[in-house]
Amino acid sequence: MDYQTYQPDTGLAEFVSCYWTLQVPENADGQKQRVVPDGCVEMIFTLGDDIKRYIEDNTCIIQPRSMLLGQFTRPFFIEPMGVVDTFAVRFFPCGLIPFTALSIRELANRETELSVVLGPDVAAGLEYSITNAADTAERIRHIETFLSDRLKDFGNIDSILKSTVDLILYTKGRLHVAEMLKDNISKRRQLERRFSRLVGLSPKQLARIVRLQTALRMLLNNEGPSLTSLAMENQYYDQAHFIKDFRELTGTSPNKFLMDNELTLSTAFYQKD
Fold first, then answer.
1. What is the pLDDT at residue 158?
2. Could you give the count of Cα atoms lying within 13 Å of 216 in the half-sphere of its Cβ?
3. In the listed set 151, 175, 206, which residue is the last one of a domain according to the structure?
4. What pTM was estimated for this model as a whole?
5. Angle between helices 264-272 and 203-220 (to 10 degrees)
């Protein structure tokens, strides 16, 4: 498995977290993989063989070859059907706002064909450029030209919305969201509605996912002598609260996470980032 990340141009760094590629030879690590929510929306181009996602234990769908993967609030399983060759754009939680008029909330927990997000003609042109590019560097040039052109007619992201997202990321999800605007219930509810529509999650959901991401990285890097210390450092109420959140967002326990072959892909993502 070869997973690589690339940083965006400075003009896009406010919106794009990174570009990433994933290459896996046929029959190498070709088993079902569990993907953990990360609080980001991704534009994904499948350059290799098809990939299927399980929507129930024995039911699956073939993912679109160019798609937007919305915010997920629960883990899901994918399985390659041959050679994996993927190029993707990972947006920050509110980074997609300038590039689509769709409600991000409506894209949650599912794939959406890029033609629905961008329009058929625009999506077809972009997919052709990405698919026929000679290498990753050329793909990045194509996607950065595309995104930069669409930014020209965009103003600014709602300052309160962006500052809330930035604060959640800066505090690594340890922000007590209930304390925000606690003296102005009306403004807090307005923020929550805008957040849901433009980020695809509530502030509390995003903070919960980001906090678990932090704990996952610490767990993978052995940055804690015990689960209790991990829980305390990440401001969970106690170890039981940490394990409950962990199970709900990963589908497994912290101890099993480290030994689960179905988490090879998620582990690569967290170790690389």
1. 77
2. 29
3. 151
4. 0.87
5. 90
